[in-house]
């Protein structure tokens, strides 16, 4: 390969670079798998640049020539861990008011005053604990939503028939 071929290959890679927010869904010593928080696209890294599973990163990835089936992390601008936990606190007044306006099985999503998001789910009274467990244990969904919302903390609050999920900075 001569110099012009190498520079053409680099230019093609630059054109296909993806910059965004990613969740590291899998990581071992050799490689890692990223999921784009906005598009859902999965990017398999040929080498792990020191990433841990369940970490959210703001990064630029580029496909590796010649096939472009694996990616390389060009730059990591930010990395953060996201805590997901069930809280012993009851939903806020705002969350309870939202729940009162919706039917069982409905979900309302809205931006919080300030940063983050609030999701309010109404569930059958006798299924509240199960719903909280389901929400907390669906880590990948919580982490992807936190990545999209710019959150570093996910707090799940509940009372009979109401589950609120707060994505907080």
What would you note in describing this structure?
By secondary structure, the chain is α+β, with helices and mostly antiparallel strands. The chain has four helices and ten strands. Strands 3-2-1-4-5 form a five-stranded antiparallel sheet, with helices on one face. Strands 6-9-10-8-7 form a five-stranded mixed sheet, sandwiched between helices. Strand 4 (55-63) and strand 5 form a beta hairpin. It is elongated.
Compute the number of helices.
4
Q: Rg, please?
A: 20 Å
Number of strands: 10
Percent of residues in β-strands:
35-45%
Question: For the terminal residues, how far apart are their CA atoms?
Answer: 48 Å
The main sheet comes to: 5 strands, antiparallel
Strand order of the largest sheet: 3-2-1-4-5
Structural category is alpha+beta
Helix and strand element order: HEEEEEEHEEHHEE
Mean pLDDT across the residues is: 92
The coarse overall form would be elongated
Low-confidence stretches: 2-11
Classify the helix fraction into a percent range. Answer: 10-25%
Give the helices and strands, then pairings.
Blueprint: H1 3-15, E1 18-27, E2 32-36, E3 42-45, E4 55-63, E5 71-81, E6 83-86, H2 93-100, E7 107-111, E8 117-122, H3 128-137, H4 139-149, E9 153-159, E10 162-168
Parallel strand pairs: 6-9
Antiparallel strand pairs: 1-2, 1-4, 2-3, 4-5, 7-8, 8-10, 9-10
